[in-house]
Write a structure and sequence with these properties.
Elements lengths: L11 H8 L4 H17 L13 E7 L1 H4 L17 E3 L12 E2 L16 H12 L3 E5 L13 E2 L9 E2 H16 L3 E7 L10 H19 L4 E4 L3 H6 L4 H14 L3 E4 L6 E3 L9 E4 L1 H19 L4
Parallel strand pairs: 1-4, 1-7, 2-4, 5-6, 7-8, 8-9
Antiparallel strand pairs: 2-3, 10-11
Length: 304
Amino acid sequence: MPSPFDPELRTYDEDRAIHGDYPLKLQMLMRAKTIVKKAIATGTPVEPFDEPYTVIAILGQSNAAGAGIEVGGTTPTPPNPRVHQWPGCGRYRGRKPLAAIDPLIHEVPTNGVGFATEFGSLLADASGKPVLLVPTARGDTSFWPKNGYSWNPANTDVRVNLFKYACKQIDSALKFSGQPLSGILWHQGESDGPLTPAELYQEQFDLLIATLRVRYGPVPFILGGLSPEYMRFGPPKLAGIDAVHKDTPNRHPNARFVEPPDGMLNGSPGVPGVVEDPHFTAEAGRIIGRRMFATYQEMTAAQP
């Protein structure tokens, strides 16, 4: 497996040969593991609230799914009983809400902490209303087709179109809750850095946002930025993806960009005894969740 902190500047064809599809045997092994993980995903079933939920969808790759490791000197936020999740896989998918406890159950279960539970807890406390999170993320995924997955709404060739999967999950949650979608939280782009030219990424990302707006209306769309530390040490083409993200509010109404914290990765390169890991720590995820919530408050302040 190539290092995620790969600073070499190559052509896209060269990078795709290194950072694109895994060897077929490894892909088959991943598929088998995914089947098992989904089959045993359980969570903690809860009784649904009689009050209307505020429904929030989470889309993207690993930092959206939750890959953060707890480090010393930080205090995890306790689960908020007013926040539930509509699981993205497992025996209760499409059937029952679960307690929103990290790790949330996305397209496939993960084992870390993300930003969604922090966001949901703050929203529930501030609004006095229960929150239903809709986890739909999957790690190491891109708009460029990789290992049978793609976020490109127009891609009909991949085994799993994650955009269509996310819409199916959102539709199921809205039917269950009887409520409209109130917001979308997005974090993705690391995998596209070495695979997708910025112009093509923008085209497909804009299509994703526009199609979501057609389906669910102009709800707040909040995207988190890529790690500055990862961009310093990782694929140099990430700068183009980052520029697309930062410009998104100029291209789409009711969309906002949230700056990420710096220097808070699970494993920075060159640190003795530390395994390289480009994902945000658990505390960084909570910081992003707080920043996303503050942004959401600003965006919805004028709404009744």
